[in-house]
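ok so dumb question maybe but i'm new to this and my supervisor (M.) told me to 'just get the structure for Transcription elongation factor SPT4' and walked off. so i did the thing. is this what she meant?? sequence i used:
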Amino acid sequence: MKAPLIKTNKLHQKITTLHEGRLGLLSNKTLTPSQNYGPPPTFHPRHIQTAQMSENFVAPGQQRYLRACMVCSIVMTFNRFRDEGCPNCEEFLHLQGSPDQIESCTSQVFEGLITLANPNRSWVAKWQRLDGYVRGMYATKVSGQLPDDVRTAIEEEYRIQYIPRDGSATEAD
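this is what came out, is it supposed to look like this??
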């Protein structure tokens, strides 16, 4: 048995009236049944190019794994330190692939966050001694003590004056 046919003119009229009333349209356009009346299309995250996504994005469930480097104070997840190392201090901290070194040279206890898009031009970067570092997210204070052997290597081999980021020492002018 065939389904009863609905007169398309009445259907068009009802749809047009419904849309004009809801959207406040004053045009004489009529809508056809083949048009999509649903909400606007949404885009799945896979359609967004990776280059447009922030490289410093941390998912809400991953925030407990954030750590700050005790030398430069950049804030990243434990896994990112393990996979990439510290982008500013890797040549002398050697964090990449070394969980023990990450545990001893980074801290989970830090205060304040600064996001730097252009560290070379930022007055905040100069104030926090971050100018010349890579762009990213930095802590204002990092608690913890750098191991003595690492501190000695930084100061003697690399001729870098280490200033703790916990506020215990101030920079000499």
